[in-house]
Amino acid sequence: MGKFIGKRIxxxxxxxxxxxxxxxFMVRLSGVDPISVILGGKESSEETRQSVIQSxxxxxxxxxxxxxxxxxxxxxxxxxxxxxxxxxxxxxPGRLSVTLGLVFMSSLFALIIAIPLxxxxxxxxxxxxxxALNVFILILNGCPAFFTSILMIIIISKVNPGYPFVGSxxxxxxxxxxxxxxxxxxxxxxxxxxxxxxxxxxxxxxxAPYTMTAIAKGCSTTHLVISHNLKNAVIPVISVVSIQIGSxxxxxxxxxxxxxxxxxxxxxxxxxxxxxxxxxxxITMLLIFLFLVISTVSDILYAVIDPRIRME
Length: 312
Prior knowledge:
The protein is mainly α. The chain has helices at 2-26, 34-38, 46-55, 62-74, 92-123, 128-141, 145-159, 172-206, 209-216, 221-258, 264-273, 277-305, 308-311.
């Protein structure tokens, strides 16, 4: 098991290294003069410009700037923001809690809904409930997160005009209150796929030889479905969910903007618009890191549940 985990971590390090090179040089293809961005487009003396160039290491080659950035990351420094004039690491903590909270709550909501629905649809295969729900899921799967978010805002504003679903928060209660609707809107994107995977795997497990043998021996169908079929059917869901969570991190960018949440997505969009290199590359790398961590953890869980993965 230790060798398996070590291999996954090594793969993650290699991907992060290659990604950092690509992202660092891609953000500099915009052709924008970083000095003008730092000075806000204002007229300035040559002395001021030289001071800015030295402070932000703009007198170095791109390769040297890359290694300065990587060395800073290893020491907890992500680089100076052109716009905010502070280290990027100072901008992330509060925003990171919003994005992670949004992704966690939406994933939890999706799994709580998708797994039971998938099981029921499998048990009631080709019934009225199964067919009706599959049509609804097909429609849901075609709705992007931002469209669902806007639709929810319109509906809630009509049903409950005083509900505070947009804006910032100042305490834990307001934090969960602000994230509730965005989490549901983002969670809908996972429900469709997760439910279909659970349904397909449940049907496969219910038709497996061991199921038929257990039924022939008089085993309760309910006990069989919950204790055996569901356990085996959920294994493939882990991989699907890990990929979906990764895409939800990207989807959170749009949802955060619709609900005016001050998360990483909002900061990333603003940094791209302002050509703020350090913020753009650092947040992008952080999102990739989160995706890789989630993927690695899912691989480990997969190996724990199914030992055959470790053998492979």
